[in-house]
Give the backbone structure.
Amino acid sequence: MGTDQEVLTGFRAEVRRWLAEAPRPEGLHDYGPTPSPEDVPTGRVWQRQLHDAGYACLHWPAEHGGRDASVADQAAFAEECAEADVPRQLNIVGPDLVGPILMRFGTEAQKEQFLPQILTGADMWCQLFSEPDAGSDLAAVRTRAARQADGTWIVDGQKVWTSGGVGADFGLLLARTGGSGHGGLSVFVVPMATDGIEIRPLRQMDGEAKFNEVYFTGARLPADAIVGEEGGGWKVATATLGRERLSLGANAVGMFRALAEILEAADQRGRRDLIADGVASLWVRTWLLRTTWERAIEEGAEPGAPAFSVLKLLTSETYREIGDLGTEALGADAAWSEDDEPLVRRMLVAHAQTILGGTSEIQRNILAERLLGLPREPARQP
Ligand SMILES: Cc1cc2nc3c(=O)[nH]c(=O)nc-3n(C[C@H](O)[C@H](O)[C@H](O)COP(=O)(O)OP(=O)(O)OC[C@H]3O[C@@H](n4cnc5c(N)ncnc54)[C@H](O)[C@@H]3O)c2cc1C
């Protein structure tokens, strides 16, 4: 859907040719933004191949090994990867969140140590922000990092919903180094193999286990593990979330593919008439989202701009509607059918889109306050 009729030129043609010819690691498939533990080894090999061919972290500046790629080229690359059923990168956290965050807040030594390893897939990263009592209200984080006399840090606490925790080499941790509130938070680089870190997988309703709980019990981090300033963690965390929204807003590729699969599934069951209107309106909406996203980036909107909250909100709600439409296309088969497993799985995970990276309600709050100028929410009491 979308690209078959185009006359292929330039970058897109080059990418399509490369994807057709590149050897595929066995078992590689488009696993989305986070690999399952069993997909991590193939994902790493693939990231290495992308790097060697010059397609790793296209959006990074050339000085850090990227390609300074235009938005159009990034979108073309993502679309071609989706068509070829391969992931566009190892996972979302290293290339899309940690890389740009280290470029902005990291020391020269951190950039030197970590950026090349993200590019080649040698290191996979996870994001250690959410806690059982600190999700939307992220400033309520309680995991504590206490500075020791020798400058090292001892971390105690619990994180949850850590995507890709099993398989990750490093995590970006938000922890409390001072008193309550935003000013008491700092961000750290955490080697996941550190003594005192325990990772417990959580099984999701779609059967996969991409999420984890991560427990810290007296885990010691080196003095230079801090990213940015002590007490400056809120700025780093919000910049990270801004990048997450920017990245999640770019989901159009998967949405077009899902709509094509839904049509096919409906055709096989003689149910096209039931879903045709829905597919048409969601297809148009997806195009609008894609072009709005491109425009926002081309006009220079910063990752934390409200524009990306609008896009995150509308994209994830549209994704959820596409998931629901899939169940209409399948009819009774949606209960479970091995043949339609990808569509059933897509329907199940679609609902997660409205939660991850800041829920739809939180995006609406941001819009109400920052775009519409409505009164701010009363601050929560600590
Ligand atoms: C697929 C997926 C991947 C994720 N990956 C990671 C990861 O890798 N690392 C990580 O740190 N976290 C991750 N998360 C966690 C995610 O960031 C949190 O789930 C999210 O921020 C919401 O927090 P919560 O689950 O604690 O819900 P809560 O904050 O408890 O919210 C519960 C409900 O209350 C609503 N609500 C809360 N506060 C307000 C308010 N002020 N106004 C209106 N409504 C409100 C919410 O919208 C929601 O509907 C992931 C989540 C998902 C679904």
In short: The longest helix spans residues 272-298. Residues 1-5 have pLDDT under 50 and may be disordered. The beta strands are 125-128, 144-147, 153-159, 170-176, 185-191, 197-202, 211-221, 226-227. The chain has three domains: 10-90, 125-232, 249-371.
